[in-house]
Amino acid sequence: MLEQIIDLITRRNANDANCEWIESEAARKLLGISPKTWQNYRDQRLIPFSQIGRKIYVNRADLDAFLRQHQIPSRK
């Protein structure tokens, strides 16, 4: 029973981290791309984002999904 509770808490904490909204510059730095590349990604709608006034926000889960889509598997 205790192991199930720990598992539930661990999964919930992981889900909460994916609901985090981060600012545009932090997202760009996390991806390691230039401001122009980041602008191109937004223009092409490669990563979903929200804009309030001049501020742009990206959901952490969307960034993780983008990285997974572009993952190159290792050779075995």
From TrEMBL:
UniProt keyword list: DNA-binding
SUPFAM superfamilies: Putative DNA-binding domain
Helix-turn-helix domain span: 25-70
Pfam families with a match to the protein in the record: HTH_17
Source organism of the structure: Duncaniella muris
PANTHER family: HELIX-TURN-HELIX DOMAIN-CONTAINING PROTEIN, PTHR34585
Protein name, as recorded: DNA-binding protein
Domain of life: Bacteria
Keyword Hydrolase annotated: no
UniProt-listed InterPro entries: DNA-bd_dom_put_sf (IPR009061), HTH_17 (IPR041657)
A single GO molecular function term of this UniProt record: DNA binding
